[in-house]
Amino acid sequence: MFREIISLLAPKLLRRSRRRPRKGQSAERVSGSNFAPTGGGDGIGDPKVLLANLAGDSGGAVTDRLSEILSACEALEVYRTNKPIKQSNDSDILLRLLVAAEKAREWLFEQQADILVWGEVEGDGVRLRFVLKIPCADNLPGAFGLGDTLELPDSLLEQAAPVIQSTVLAAVGPTFQGLRSRVATALGQAMQGGREIAQVQPEGMTPEQHATVLTVLGNAFSTQYRLTKGAKNLESAIAVYRSAAKKISPEANPEIWAVAQSHFATALKARGTIEKNEETLKQAAVAYQKITEILGRDTHRYDWALAHTNHGLVLYRLSMRTGRAAYLQEAGKAFDEALTVYTKETMPARWAETTNQYGVILLALGEQVTGNVTLEMAVKKFRKVFEVRKREHAPQLWAQTANNLGAACFSLAKRNAEVALLREAQVYFEGAIEVYQQTGAAKRAEVIKSNLSRVERLLTARVK
């Protein structure tokens, strides 16, 4: 898994990445003068790819070949650096990737590129990794994260050229600020070229390597779905992810398996949500739960915790579809597990996000069950989030929790008649409205205004 959670897991790293880029050695353009279409409505130009020298590539021969493969794609503008992204010696692989991604983001901002392709050569194998200038939300189908890799035998790089091109186009496509329709067209063409290698594992390629090929092609189908809204693409993505996860033993290769399984579950969740299909959402919940059962809390703690969080969120969706409180109760247990890893001291931003989501689940459960205990717990959860989410530092995140706290206070006040809760709801609703109006989220502000009116009417009735 290792989804793109830098902003949640390591906010200090992200703040450093956003500093004004210092002047460094410029990257050399290696692709031809690509045609930059105009009049597309959503921007011009092609995605700018920054290719770092692969670590362990003595003499740079493998990186040279990779450069030629990417440059052959007319929808990509390729630049080459003369140095690799080096990983630290930390024993925790996620922390190593976070530090590497920090350096990658500095390079991206220096060169104003959209995606950095990096990785390493180990023996006869090549492992490619990807960092995006504009990360994609990790709850969307096909979102590339820190753990997404494409692993290939050195001898098959040219044969896998369409897969490599598809991977880069799929990674950058959803957040590219230029002409996405051109990216979608190029992606479709590259995917056609990669069909054979997806259907039959080539001689000389290991099952683990083929599983990464299938996973990135699943991401390509997911990206096509998001760019074109074609439901068949999402179905194809689900099928390919399923094949990737079955390709290898989860016990023997937990990292590669977990990436494929997580993408599989996310695609199922998307389909179940769109189709309002309870059975598909159940399949997504089972897929996430399987990750928590295979990955160990001690050996893969962050992935284990994230899988619990995703499992809880799918259970929440199931409850909203069915009205069953049991799903919410199970979701609460999943969040309790996640919060044993996501602590305020070690990962404050991720802790705040997870605690906020837990509060939403408790609020929904509290409105379904008798008694006030669950609603009281929801109020406490939201209040605690403000220990991290400060209005002056993260106004939109603060407003999100403020709105949630207002709703929880109002719901509890309707039961216990406490005026203080109504006043608290009033204050936080007003604050959320102000933030959303300032940030251009007028529709959201209007919805909260309606809830504020309900609070004010009840408050007027209670104080008489």
Describe the structure.
- The protein has 464 residues and is α/β, with parallel strands linked by helices.
- The chain has a domain at 1-228.
- 61% of the residues lie in helices and 8% in strands.
- The protein is built from 18 helices and six strands.
- It has helices at residues 6-9, 11-17, 61-71, 93-111, 161-172, 180-193, 195-199, 207-228, 231-247, 254-275, 278-294, 301-322, 325-338, 348-366, 373-385, 395-416, 419-438, 442-463; strands spanning 28-29, 48-53, 77-84, 115-122, 125-132, 150-153.
- Strands 1-3-2-4-5-6 form a six-stranded mixed sheet, sandwiched between helices.
- α3 (61-71) links the parallel β2 and β3 (77-84).
- α13 (325-338) runs antiparallel to α14.
- It is elongated and about 80 Å long.
- The N and C termini lie far apart (56 Å).
Provide a short characterization of the protein structure.
The protein has 18 helices and six strands. It is an alpha/beta fold and 464 residues long. The chain has a domain at 1-228.
Characteristic key phrases:
single chain; 464 residues; alpha/beta; 6 strands; disordered N terminus
Which range best describes the helical content: under 10%, 10-25%, 25-40%, 40-55%, 55-70% or over 70%?
Answer: 55-70%
Give the overall silhouette.
elongated
Q: What does the radius of gyration come to?
A: 24 Å
- State the total count of DSSP E strands: 6
Protein structure class: alpha/beta
The portion of residues forming beta strands comes to 5-15%
Order of helices and strands: HHEEHEHEEEHHHHHHHHHHHHHH
Mean pLDDT across the residues is 89
Number of helices: 18
Largest sheet composition: 6 strands, mixed
Distance between the termini: 56 Å
Unreliable residue runs: 2-25, 32-43
Walk across the major sheet and give the strand order: 1-3-2-4-5-6
